[in-house]
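call fold target=Stage 0 sporulation protein A homolog
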Amino acid sequence: MNKLLLIEDDEALALGIEFTLKDEGYEVFRGATIAEGKSLLEKEEFDLILLDINLPDGNGYDLCKYIRRTSEVPIIFLTALDDEVNIVLGLEIGGDDYITKPFRVRELLSRIKALIRRSNKGQTYGNKLRSGDLEINTLETTVKKRGQELILTAQEYKLLLIFMSNPNILMKRDEILGRLIEGDEVFFDENTLSVYIKRIREKIEDNPREPQYIITQRGLGYKWNVEVVRI
């Protein structure tokens, strides 16, 4: 049974979401503040987190950053802020998806299922790959740079694996998105892909402004530009 954490201060909405998720077979833990969210995170491990942005003791972005220090658990933002700047900010700091209120419960369920599937798929590979200062251990689903482990979300990990499995090959944006989604319902667009690549660069590059690993071919796509060795 997948274990979900819901952080939402609108009690009526939270109760409705909790009832639906439990009816679908999920185990749901619910909190209404950042403090309650941190307390639950200390006690339990979750398969996915639903996180409201506006909370009584702060905002969901702060809790997302707190989670990303130690975990790559998928995070879906629940937001009434139907604004591209806020959406991009949520993705840049480590969110995996967002849904704007009011939303249909079935759409939320589809997104939850898709994210959990992608998260699980990211754990099915079985080799080690080394490229420059980076090493992916696909049995343990870990990424290290100069021996220091990097914290990546499931989507960042899978995207990095896609690139390192196809070194020195120019990949178009729609091809990358297709491999990332792999038959799941499409919730990514090109802007989201750009955000993911920006986040990965900030973690793997010595100077993200002058990337050495993931190179942009303007108008064409992206290429992994460093030799990859299978160990």
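return ok
The helical segments are 11-23, 34-43, 60-68, 84-92, 105-121, 154-164, 173-181, 190-204. The chain has eight helices and 14 strands.
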